[in-house]
Every structure is written in structure tokens, then in C-alpha cells.
Amino acid sequence: MDGGELSGAERRVWAAMPAGTRAALAGLPAADLRTLLLAVARDRAADVRPADLVRRWREDRFVRPAAADPRALAEAEAAMWRLLPADVAGVELSPVVPVGTCSAVAPVRQNRIVTTMRATEVLSDPTNALAVEAAVRRRRQPPSGEVHLAAVHRVLRAQDFGAGASAHFRLFALVSSAREAGSGRTEARLLMRHLTYWRAVLADLAPAAAPRLHVTVFDDPVLRERLTDTVRPALAAGHSKGSHGGPVPLVDEPERERGRGYYTGVALRITAIDRTLEIGDGGLTDWTARLTGDAKERCLISCLATERLIACR
């Protein structure tokens, strides 16, 4: 409780409180702390006036409506659902998830998440929530089973993305989980699934925006081999059969460092407009391995920002 890990703002607030306040609050049972915080929120809400609401609506980046046309969003997302393979289960996620859903499995600081008073947090990334759901479903399957899930959700993030940027946006996300088969075969199969789907989406919905899929291998020679001898030939074969997404290239991006430590082995990126606009990201993670307690479980996540997609069409 020495406060050495606190930010300047946190130290200022605790310094203004009576001695022992922080320790007393930290020692409260979770139910009692929630009761206390809800009582404080009720008291503060009682003082809110209509003029306060209008001011907050204008000034608070968390509550301002998105600039995207909801009709265009609905049309694009409906097309994405139609392109999804039949064996991918759609999931309608809750607006909130258990507190720590991101930080417990990924190197994400909790202060980037909007935490609630009820041991939950506002959904900031559907891939984390889908990974938890995938882990729950994998526990009900035999080891040879696999899970493929998809969701579209408006997410809210606490970090400041800069002037004019919204704190909330919609993501269409995929999560796949299956047990390792050896020699990178499971990872290759999952990569082919996701890349084939995103290529179909981009070719169908944004062909004029010069979309590209990018792939980076982080220090894993086995996965580099599978990318060369399995993933790329499968994608090329799909193109030759006249599948969706033929014009969308898969580009090596060996110089990428962002995501190292977050992704394990392979990272993906989706761009448009001559690589100037990033509209998606993804990669292999250890999330379902950690959630199921099975180190052989493999998990691939990927997502696309649908508002950015319609903006570049």
C-alpha cells in the first residue's frame, strides 16, 4: 500500500482521503464494496440535472454517438454473416464480461478497460469474450473437437485515440480453438479458415479499396514452413477454383513488431487503400490453452472494424 505503483492522479486522490481509506476499501468483501459503490452512484445520480446530461452528451467521448451510417453498417455486417461458413457458430455477446476478461489472459492494462461496479467490465474486445466461450465449449468436447465462433459487437475502450476518434466502434470477430496435432498442422488449418474468410469479405465488400492481408511469423520456423507449404498453396488453390477473394493478396510483413508478446507465433493484419488504412488484426494466442488448462490447445483470433470497412468502400 505504499502507492509506488500508482499514477500521479491516483496518488493525489488517495492523499486527499482520510488515512487508512485505501486499505479499508481493499479489505471489504466484494459484495460490500459493490453495495458501497452503488450507494455512491445513486447519491451522485440524484444530483444530475438535464443540463448536466446535455453537457456530458456533448463533451464525453464515451457517450457520443458514432458517426457511421447504421444502415450501411447493418448491410455490410449482414453480408459478412452470409459469407461465414455454416460450421461457425454466431454468438450474441453481453455488453459486459467478467472483470479481468482481457487482462487475465493478455498483456492489457486494466485502466484501458471501462470497469463497472458489479465485478464486470464493458466489453472492449469481442475476441477475449469469444475465447472464454470457446474454452467453455471445448471443455464439453472430446480432445479431437474444435470450436469456431463469430460475433459482431460495439466495443468501448478507455484509452484516448486522439482528437475526433470515437471511444467506441464495431468489430466483427472470429475465434477458433482446437487441440494441437503436431508440426503446426492445427495452426495452419485455423489460419486457412480465417484468411479464406477475410479474403472473401474484402473481395465482396471492398474490392476497389486495394485490400491486403498481411502475415508475420514471430520466431517460429515450423509455422513459417506451414505458411509456405500448406497455407499459401491452399489459398492459391481456392483462388484457382473461383472462390471469393481472388484479388486480395497475402503479403509477408516480416518487419512487424507490434503484437509480439500478445500474439504467439503468427500475427495477421488487414489493410486497405494502399496499406494506409488498417481495418483488421489478429493472430495466434494462448488464451484457450490458459482458460482450459490444456497447454496443447491452440487459439486463433481475428477481427475487422466494420465502420472502417464501409468508410473505404
Automatic annotation (TrEMBL):
Please give the superkingdom of this protein's source. Answer: Bacteria
- Its name, as the record gives it, is Uncharacterized protein
Q: What organism does this protein naturally occur in?
A: Micromonospora globispora
